[in-house]
Predict the structure of Peptidase S9 prolyl oligopeptidase catalytic domain-containing protein.
Amino acid sequence: MAVWLWCLFCLLASSARHDERATEPHVNRDGTYPLAFSTAWAVLGPFQAGTREGTWGADPLEYLGGFRALQYDQDSHFRSSLPTNGTAKWSIVQAKQTTSTSTSANASLSISYPDVDWDFLKVVYGWAAVQYQAWARGQIVVTGNASIPVVLYTDWILEYWVDDVHYFGGDFFTFRQAPAVLHLSPGTHAIDLRLVRDVRALGGVNDPSIDVLLELQKAPGALELAKPGILLSDVVDGKLATPIASVILRNSGKHDVEIIDIQISDVRGPFPSPLADVQVVLGPNARLTKSQTSPPSKSSLPRTFLVAGQTRPVAFNISLQTQYASSIDCIITYKVGNHRPHLTLSVSQHLTRSSIYAPHKFTYLHPGGMVSYAMLRPPAKNATCHPRNATSLPILFGFHGAGLEADNGIVAHALDPVPDLCAWVMFPTGVTPWSGDDWHNWGFADVEYAVHSIQTWMKSVAWQGPDIDVGRWIVTGHSNGGQGTWYALTHRPDQIVAAAPVSGYASIQKYVPYELWQPMDPRRAAIMGGTLNSYRHEMLMENAQGIPVLQQHGEKDDNVPAYNSRFLSQKLFEAGTNSSYYELPGQGHYFDTVMTTEQLVRFYYKYADSVETIPRRLQDFTFVVANPGDMGSKSGIRVLHLEDPGQYGKVVVNGHSIQTSNVLSIEFDPNLMQMSSITLDGQELDVSMSTIQSGAMTASKVEEGPWKIGDLSASQGSKIYRQGRQLGAMTAILRTRGSFIIRHQGKDTAHVALQVSRNLHQYFSADSRIASTSPASISGSGNVISVCIGQAPPSFHPNFPIVAGATAVTLRDWRGRLHTFSEPSGLAAAFLRPLEGEQLELVLWGSSQRRLAQAARLVPMLTGVGQPDFVVLGESASWRGVEGALALGFFDHQWNVTSSSLV
Ligand SMILES: *[C@@H]1O[C@H](CO)[C@@H](O)[C@H](O)[C@H]1NC(C)=O
Ligand SMILES: *[C@@H]1O[C@H](CO)[C@@H](O)[C@H](O)[C@H]1NC(C)=O
Ligand SMILES: *[C@@H]1O[C@H](CO)[C@@H](O)[C@H](O)[C@H]1NC(C)=O
Ligand SMILES: *[C@@H]1O[C@H](CO)[C@@H](O)[C@H](O)[C@H]1NC(C)=O
Ligand SMILES: *[C@@H]1O[C@H](CO)[C@@H](O)[C@H](O)[C@H]1NC(C)=O
Ligand SMILES: *[C@@H]1O[C@H](CO)[C@@H](O)[C@H](O)[C@H]1NC(C)=O
Ligand SMILES: *[C@@H]1O[C@H](CO)[C@@H](O)[C@H](O)[C@H]1NC(C)=O
Ligand SMILES: *[C@@H]1O[C@H](CO)[C@@H](O)[C@H](O)[C@H]1NC(C)=O
């Protein structure tokens, strides 16, 4: 474990100044503690909830004006589909535990409804039945004279109110990365919790209680470390495996903070080491050599601001030039507002040493602009490699399950029993313990960046051993990592030598059915389903054709039922793939050697040493594409655009003859095709000429017309196309290149801007810069989230089909007809818009502050919610869910609203 220390006047004390808060008493004069939670909570429930539906609202109490408008009354009855007699009531529940110390207060609640016949409901609706919602109201009591800055952790909670302030996001999976910062005045504060039960978080087998924990921690009211220590590579052969490092900082004060500088202040070890041996490199271009005499050159640093309440990771480079260091200390210099003198914060980190051949941590920059890490085990000296292929070895991935860090021994040492594999072994994190978004957009980008950062690692450690073939992947993983293995297999078929998904689930919908969502029009259901197409592995099994697959699952698994693997095993067979399925009799979800059973060990050795050429050249195969934005090629074929992005595209290849459906633009790798002509949907295309100039050949359909050689933009002039990273539903916003940029208007939008930043960090460990609206504020390569009340900022696209004005939203449908939405109770909208190149903007718009909060719920955060490209919400969505949307759907390749949308 990392050690850390607070250090406001640390070693470089010359410019440091303490602030007042430390002089506050920690215990009140009467001996009570300054912070406490009430022990009695007023609870109202249970009500039906669909899998991940809470994001859409779908809260029945909103029909009555919201829980916050209701007062405890033991005689009132509320209609509800779950309890006996169809009525839910208030009850008073004693907290399971409340504790206070001089600096903190905790409350844990356990809410259960023994009067509901859960077992019978489960027989009918399965695990969907034990996901339900309720509300609880308690109090925070603050004593003493002064307002106290605190952070509030909300384990397993999605949404809450403190007094009159709404917080959406909470900490549904207990990441504890970005608690909200509050400044609590003396007195009593009401806290209302929306409790939403989720099987993936709280389980499906035992008593379906909702167990949550609240924790208030007194905060310094200034810049502080949000997480102890520095994220650093391990030290191999006396050097950091890679130079990039990061600290996670939180501003718990009331004023914005700017980071001025990060410097090494000390390196400790058994041998004294001069400071000059250490270099800190900050920012993309600046390189500062540590020296106590020359002041840091501020102008060369990227300006890093943390607005009041914000948590941000800050990246910097360190290179150790002394072999014997055991720990390092850094000093972070910052200023509050425009004040001088500067303040400092210090952070210390023990160094972890590792043999270069053992799994060790190395760091790199995620495309989202923050530092991530993976555990890497380079090929052993005695690796048993086929002599013909010993110079460039494949990579074997081990994807971890939900709730685990990759540096946990359960993950990083799972393949220790197979030390001499002829492969690079990597355990990526996917950024968070839930692999970002379950190894999808955010998590999978992490995997690909980790692979490409091995080159940096090789330089940094002066690697002399075998090279890596970054295009040859053997993929395995357990649980959520088994699901990630399916994702890699179905989305990167041309890179996969072989795949072994272990105890994985088929898709979010197969894991816990969506049966209990609020009812909706089938067109809406189709749009909602379409947003999750890319993650339904059961629909993509044909992409595994030609790839050896080994499946393994415990027969008695009550966490991820073996049904998932049995089902996909059948689908693989029907798709004509070569797979084997091993069900382990009597075994559950996990046991110590689950990743090194006899068949898996044989599998790893066999495919690590395989000499089969990758990508495979297949004669007859089918390729299914849900979203070209996250899909690689199969046998050299890539789909670049779908006609309707809400529907699967299909490519069926029989030698020279190719049939497509719902495909608008397609690319061929001539090296794999090796033919002079192809027949595309019955149309003969000469591909001999065009293959000569470039590495790839593209064919596109123009205005529903015939196939032509060339891409869409070439054939249709200078129009703005939706392309590459912009493709997909609203989750495409996660394919950012650089930190997110959250721009907003000012005071009225600041709370939501901060909430978006907090949720992006909580759920993805992402970095975001919060800026007020001005042209300069969107300079940067990252995707932009625009937060606005009335009048959305101008669109980069000159003729964008959605215009959000002061109180109304106007939408141009696929026939060119204009629809204007406006409601007396106000409107909310969330939609994507293009920026230059493949950069993307997500507009969150409300006609009022309240409506803006409704729009902001839709920012991608939890997997399985299913946000389409655009949504216009009326008030009733807060209880009717998706049925309360006035319009929703997709944009096509020209950013027009598709005919499959609902307007
Ligand atoms: C259901 O309603 C009946 C008739 O009003 C009442 O006797 C019974 O106690 C109610 N049951 C519950 C669990 O509230
Ligand atoms: C509050 O809960 C957290 C998380 O369970 C725990 O680490 C901490 O010790 C608790 N604090 C008190 C005062 O009980
Ligand atoms: C509250 O404020 C008064 C007046 O400023 C002061 O005399 C008293 O010591 C304070 N009490 C506490 C508990 O800080
Ligand atoms: C860190 O150093 C690498 C080269 O080793 C450089 O590419 C990168 O831009 C630097 N990053 C920062 C944040 O200074
Ligand atoms: C390679 O070395 C490891 C121990 O370092 C040993 O366990 C393994 O059996 C060796 N493999 C071969 C093929 O010699
Ligand atoms: C392995 O060796 C064979 C035969 O020399 C060669 O065709 C193939 O490209 C090699 N594969 C790799 C990954 O180096
Ligand atoms: C299927 O896999 C088995 C075992 O690896 C292999 O012997 C066989 O050739 C494969 N068949 C096809 C069609 O790839
Ligand atoms: C579709 O988009 C293109 C490019 O912006 C535009 O020229 C065309 O009018 C749009 N079609 C409709 C029906 O809105």
In short: Residues 1-25, 272-279, 281-301 have pLDDT under 50 and may be disordered. The two ends are 54 Å apart (CA to CA). The first strand starts at residue 35 and ends at 37. Residues 262 and 332 are 5 Å apart (CA to CA).
